[in-house]
Amino acid sequence: MLLVLMGAVVLIVFIVSLNIANLLLARASGRQQEMAVRSALGASRGRLVRQMLTESILLSLIGGIAGIATAVGTLGFILRFVPSNVPRLNEVRIDWLVLAGPPHTRPKTRGSFIDGKVPRLQSRRSHAIFP
Description:
Number of strands: 0
């Protein structure tokens, strides 16, 4: 029973991650003209990359903080509805050591770097066309 629940949670997290990545890529492709204008006004490629990475990291941090706050706020509420015969129910908690682990192990941090670099790679092969 618990393995099925864990599999469902992993699947949902995977689908949500794909949806978020798709939204970020759509946003980045919609900003190609803005990046072309900034480049035409004199912004270096490095400055554009720093801007995109800064935006991605900021969005990741805000999402991570919102997720942690939601987990902390709803843990007690959810545990009230779980049947008492669930094994090791009294051990359910948020593991702060996992959250404070090395940054390269956190999916949000890895995702922010990947999402910040993809628009840069797209801007290398595209050319600005102004209507």
